[in-house]
Design goal:
Number of helices: 10
Radius of gyration: 19 Å
Helix content: 25-40%
Order of helices and strands: EHEEHEHEHEEEHEEHEHHHH
Largest sheet: 7 strands, parallel
Strand content: 15-25%
Number of strands: 11
Length: 289
């Protein structure tokens, strides 16, 4: 039986994939960064390794045939960490990598973190390993967090651009299917999106209906966006990531709607409206009830 390794297994996406693989009866190996966190499949085999520790990561992936590589947390070292983990996995004998990337990944992508994904994708290609790259759009989970809980205002330089945000559950279902079936999307790069592309004004309207209060969107200029975030004490690369995530919406880089979820799962992806209905807890900081 093919052994499937799942990284990021204590995070939201990785844990969803691990649970689905376990339910499907897969030979599963969890690869976690640090001990102590609750595991999504308590009786699964687990190894611990940081992406940036090649020796440990090679040991953790020894015997794994197919690896789900969930991207690391944003940092100035993320590409180097990804590269180390990929090389270690290939050295350990991993034959196929399914990588969670980001829509619009390119060396000149507006969203600075999307550039990290492009360089990671290229490194996977250069190893010669079999691969499938799933380029997710923004997460629907994160859209309520764009609004200030006090004022109910979303501010950012997104203009009237659109974002085809996607539910974690849909990504997990696609990734699980691809991991279980090596004939699905071999050597392909596929966008994974929701069923519709919304402006942030439309996002605010949907949030308003579910939160029971008025949520609005106020476009900022790029200089205004940097100035409004200057007092957070975050490093420059992080602030640039925050601001350019809105800019990428304005440029249209996150507006394309893909058919990947329906093609792989047989059902339409979840709308943002339905996502909020199914997950009312994510509105707790915005809701008046």
């Amino acid at each position: 039986m093919t052994t499937i390794g799942v990284t990021g297994c204590t995070g939201k996406l990785g844990s969803m994939v691990a649970q689905r693989l376990s339910e499907a009866g897969a030979d599963l190996r969890l690869i976690a960064r640090t001990p102590g966190k609750e595991l999504p499949v308590p009786d699964a085999e687990v190894r611990y390794a940081e992406y940036g520790d090649g020796q440990l990561f090679e040991a953790a992936t020894a015997g794994v045939d197919t690896l789900l590589l969930v991207s690391a947390m944003e940092s100035e070292l993320r590409v180097a960490e990804h590269t180390t983990a990929i090389d270690a996995a290939v050295a350990a004998g991993v034959r196929r990598i399914v990588y969670i990337s980001f829509q619009g990944a390119a060396p000149e992508a507006t969203f600075t973190f999307a550039r990290d994904h492009w360089y990671t994708e290229q490194h996977i290609r250069q190893t010669g390993v079999e691969f499938t790259i799933l380029r997710d759009n923004n997460y629907q989970l994160h859209l309520p967090g764009l609004a200030d809980p006090e004022t109910g205002v979303i501010r950012g330089p997104a203009g009237t651009g659109r974002v085809a945000a996607v539910a974690h559950e849909d990504i997990a279902e696609v990734a699980t299917a691809v991991l279980l079936d090596g004939t699905l999307l071999p050597g392909e790069v596929r966008d994974v999106t929701g069923p519709q592309a919304l402006t942030l004004a439309e996002v605010a309207g949907i949030l308003s209906r579910h939160a029971g209060r008025t949520i609005t969107y106020e476009p900022e200029s790029i200089p205004e966006a940097y100035a409004s975030r200057a007092g957070y004490g975050a490093p420059e690369w992080m602030v640039a990531g925050w601001v350019t995530s809105y800019e990428a919406i304005a440029t249209g880089e996150l507006a394309a709607v893909s058919d990947t979820v329906q093609a792989i799962t047989g059902h339409l992806p979840t709308t943002f409206d339905r996502y909020l209905t199914d997950h009312p807890d994510i509105l707790s900081k915005l809701s008046t009830s």
